[in-house]
């Protein structure tokens, strides 16, 4: 899921929750980072629903971890060296 200006906080939270196990997975890390950025930009100081609350300050540490992981691993995603195939006879 890609967040946009028409996305809601619920969309961002769902994307974040769907990608909590991002470690070692660049696709999930990128999605989680996108969700955190969305939440941080569109935040109140904190939000709560039912018995759940989010303190945005705690997201900053995870954002830094995600950015570092994505930076280190993004350049190797979907890139394969070009090789020439030759028929074996």
Task: Describe, in plain words, how this protein is organized in 3D.
The protein has 89 residues and is mainly α. The protein has one domain (9-74). It has helices at 9-18, 26-41, 56-73, and strands spanning 46-49, 52-55. The chain has a two-stranded antiparallel ribbon with strand order 1-2. Strand 1 and strand 2 (52-55) form a beta hairpin. Helix 1 runs antiparallel to helix 2 (26-41) and helix 2 packs antiparallel against helix 3 (56-73).
**Low-pLDDT stretches:** none
Task: Calculate the terminal CA-CA distance, rounded to whole Å.
Answer: 46 Å
Count of DSSP helices? 3
Number of strands: 2
Radius of gyration: 18 Å
Order of helices and strands: HHEEH
Total tally of structural domains: 1
Strand line-up of the largest beta sheet: 1-2
In percent, how helical is the residue content? 40-55%
Q: Report the major sheet.
A: 2 strands, antiparallel
Query: Quick check: average pLDDT?
Result: 80
How much beta, percentage-wise?
5-15%
From the helix content, strand content and strand pairing, which structural class follows? Answer: mainly alpha
- Morphology call: elongated
């Amino acid at each position: 899921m890609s967040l946009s200006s028409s996305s809601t906080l619920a969309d961002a939270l769902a994307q974040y929750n769907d990608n909590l196990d991002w470690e070692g997975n660049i696709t999930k890390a990128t999605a989680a980072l996108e969700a955190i950025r969305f939440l941080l930009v569109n935040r109140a100081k904190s939000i709560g629903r039912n018995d759940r609350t989010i303190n945005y300050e705690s997201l900053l540490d995870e954002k830094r971890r995600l950015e570092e992981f994505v930076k280190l691993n993004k350049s190797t995603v979907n890139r394969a060296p070009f090789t020439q195939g030759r028929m074996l006879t």
